[in-house]
Each structure stands twice: as C-alpha cells, then as structure tokens.
What we know:
The protein is an alpha/beta fold. It folds into 3 domains: 11-120 and 250-317, FAD/NAD(P)-binding domain, CATH 3.50.50.60; 134-247, FAD/NAD(P)-binding domain, CATH 3.50.50; 336-419, Enolase-like, domain 1 (2-Layer Sandwich). It contains 11 helices and 26 strands. The strands form 7 sheets. Strands 3-2-1-7-19 form a 5-stranded parallel sheet. The protein has a 5-stranded parallel sheet with strand order 9-16-10-11-12. The two termini are 45 Å apart. The model is unreliable at 1-11 (pLDDT under 50). Keywords: Dioxygenase, FAD, Flavoprotein, Oxidoreductase.
Amino acid sequence: MQTPDSKSTTPSAAMVIVGAGHCGGRAAHALRNAGWQGAIHLVGDEAHAPYERPPLSKDLLTGDKTADACALLSPDAMADLQITRHVARVTGIDASARLVTLSDGQQLPYQSLLLATGGKVRTLSIPGGDLPEVLTLRNLGDAAALSSRLGAGQRLLVVGGGFIGLEVAASARKLGCEVTVVEGAPRLMGRAVPEPVAERALALHRERGVRVLLGVNPISISRTANSMSMALSDGSRIEADTVLAGIGIVPDLSLAQSAGLAVARGVLVNAQLQTSQPGIFAAGDLAEFPSVLSGQLVRQETWHNAETQAAIAAHNMLGGTEAYASQPWFWSDQYDHQLQVMGEPALAAHSATRMLDDGGLVIFYLDAANRLVGACGWGQSSRVAKELKLARTLVERRITAAPDVLVDPATKLKALLSHDR
C-alpha cells in the first residue's frame, strides 16, 4: 500500500471522500489545489453537486438566490478538476483493505479516505409528526418543498427556537406568512447565545409579527378539515397550514461505527483530523476534535468549521501533519439583524458588555488574566458589521484587555490590536 504522500496515479492511489456536501466539496477542490494528480472520488446520495447550506433558511426561501447560485462546484468545474462524483450511498468501509463499497456495487480502493457525511435532521417523534405537511430543512429538496408552501396568508408553525427556526421565521414573515414559533426552553437559542442577545432576538421577532411561545412543547399533530392542529403541553392548540421541525441534527455515525472507528458525540479525531484508523480522516459536522483553546473535545455544526476543516483534512490526506487551529465562529441573519459568536465563551471567567448604537451590543468573554476567549455580538447588520469583524480579530489573536477598556465607547477596538503578542 502506498504512503499518503505518494504521487502515483494508479487506481489504488485514489483519494475518496464520503459526503458530497460543503466540507466534502471543498476538500475535493483542495486536494487538486495541493497538487494531487491521482483520482478523486466524491461520494454522496444527494443528486445535487456540492453547495452551501446557509442560504437554505434565508435567500433560497425568499427567492433572492437560486439553487445554482449556492453551488460550490458545478458539474463542469468538477469535470475540469477531474473529480469523479458518485450519486450513491456507501454500504461499507474495509479499513484494513482500504476499500469503500457503494450501493451500486462499485468498490473504490483508497489511499486516504475522508468522512464528511455531516448529520441527519431530527424529526418530531410525536403522534402526527410524520404527516406530509410536517417538514424539515436540511437540503435543497427540503428548501424547495418548504418554499412552495410559503406565501401571503399561509400559516407556518415552527417547532424550535434555534438558528434554523428563527431564520425560517424571518424569511416566512418577509413572504407574508403568519408565523408561530414554539420553543420548549424558557428562552430562544438555548445555550448558543447569552441571555441579552436572546432577549433582543425575541423582541425583534415579536416586533416583526411572529408569535413566539416559550416553555411549551408539542404533544401531537392532527389534520383538521382545512389545516393542521398541534396540541401543546400547556393544553392549548395552534392551527397551521405547514409545520417545520427546526430541532437540529444528529451526526451520522453509523458508517464510522461499522468501519470500527472510535466515536463518542462524533467521530473522534486528533488535531490533524485523523481518526482511530490509519488513512481515514473526518471533518465537518460529524468530527469531534480537540479545541485549540481548551484542548477539550468539541463538535461544531457551522459553515466555518466545514470550510476550514476541509482544507486541513485535504492537506493531511496527502501526508501533511498540520493541526487544525481555527477558532469557532458562526453567524445568523434574522431580518436586517445579525448575531455572531466567536471563540469559546464557556471558557470565560467573566464578561464585559460593550453597547453599540440602536440597541446593538458586543459581549466580550475573558479568562482570569483578562485574555479574550470569546465574544458574541448582535445588532443591525449594516451598523455592527465593522465592530463584529474587529471583535473576531481580537478574539482570534487572544488580546488581553481590561473589561473597563472594552466597554468604554471611547475605546477604538482597532487600537487594541496593537496589544497583539
């Protein structure tokens, strides 16, 4: 068996990527950019070429972007790069023989293998949760199905007050829908954002006409003469034309488990994104990897994670030893507002809140030595973009700054970059 840095172009020297989404598509492109001349096989069971997922809950629903505009690699681009795409499922991985078996019977010998299968969408496990009017949102087909049911006067019931649910709620309101959001927790967006940001998001959605119910759970869904009826844990009922289950995803670990890979909350990898089996890497939503800040194992379901890990995985599939060192970062667009979270706020000893114009804010999270470990910001997109970009840079560089300096509106965040060490 050839070593990972071999440049042989024999059939056995293929790079195989399982999962043809964002992370898989980027990794395939990165392999070519790194100079790999051998075969690249990109395997996924979705008919569409690799594309970005963030527009699914926003621009695709409102019609401001087409499916083609979301593509990462068009079929022509993949042909130019000599990337072979297989629309199929992987039915088995033989790690000792370095062989992948597909649902169409093909077998692909690999030199290095990347698992980038992402996650499976959670569904409502309640009576009526499988009715055809109860939808989920994970891929282009889901977005098309949901979009066809949104329009002026349509009643949409969203289960889940996380990012997907709230983004869909904002998009549906833009289209003139009547929208209700049901969230079982006492506030929106769970532990992903601090309470001051959750409160501002709640106020914004209610201001824009969304009915938001907190602390209640769906019990059952039934079909009435002209609509759907959802029974809630507080004894009330809500009528709707369409229900969206926006309750997250679970990592797709079945293939990794059958291949004998070590798994926990995700597929366990080291800093180089190498799994417990030689020659097999994992990246994106399903990878559980050591945090660059704490060393603790984390799993991230973000655009940034898929984008950045794809490049590191591709480099190391070719024999590199680069450690993944990017800090967490994600954003959510809701109406004309944006929130961002960067770094790992959970590692903080204390925080400092910097107020911005028009109700915006940035919460900085610091360790005991006043070194930045995270930040979270919220406000009108056009007004907070610069401050959030600077905050992210400060966190990435782990700047040390006193809390009173960070909250002082007279302090220019850009000036703090001179404290870089």
